[in-house]
Write a structure and sequence with these properties.
A 4-stranded parallel β-sheet has the order 8-7-1-9, with helices on one face. It has a 3-stranded antiparallel β-sheet with strand order 4-3-5. With 174 residues, it is an alpha/beta fold. Helix content is 42%, strand content 19%.
């Protein structure tokens, strides 16, 4: 009942976004509106943050962000339970190669249109902002989105929202 209604509502909202986006894209007099979208893990920073899991048989273990991203769909199907509490912190964070590029972009264009889009939970935004600030990149907290989801669909829908807001010149690094 409720799940189906919510799914229909979400599909309708996405359809409205697509329609708005198509109308916007057909207009030729739109000013250029640039946006920078950066992933956090292994793009701006490396860290030792791990995802803890419990298998259905009770055995516990950990995954790196990379291992989780490549296997979570299979593991959820196998009834693994995940604990992301370490992902709310940046454990042993170190700058990754793209951080310097991001700082150059910020120096040239500011950070109002620079966004961090991460699979980490939204609770991690404060720790991400603190780490970046300590490393010379000051991103507004409201520009840090933790999807709590690493599907490409979740990221695509977020990007679609930004296009519907009028952004039409994208720099995306993941």
């Amino acid at each position: 009942g409720n799940y189906k209604q919510q799914e229909k509502k979400n599909n309708l909202e996405n359809l409205e976004k697509y329609n708005k986006l198509i109308q916007f894209s057909r207009s030729t007099n739109n000013p250029t509106k640039g946006i920078t979208i950066l992933d956090f893990d292994d793009t701006l920073a490396t860290s030792s943050s791990l995802i803890r899991f419990t298998r259905p048989d009770g055995i516990k273990g950990t995954l790196t962000p990379e291992q989780y991203a490549s296997t979570y769909e299979d593991l959820i199907g196998l009834d693994y339970k995940f604990d992301f509490s370490e992902f709310n912190k940046v454990v042993d964070g170190k700058p990754a190669p793209l951080l310097n590029k991001a700082k150059k972009l910020a120096g040239k264009f500011g950070t109002d249109n620079m966004f961090i889009l991460t699979a980490r939970p939204q609770e991690s935004a404060v720790a991400i902002q603190k780490f970046l600030k300590e490393n010379g990149l000051n991103i507004p907290l409201e520009n840090i989105t933790g999807l709590g989801n690493s599907t490409s669909e979740a990221k695509a829908l977020w990007v679609l929202d930004k296009a519907a807001e009028g952004y039409n010149d994208f720099y995306f690094a993941d």
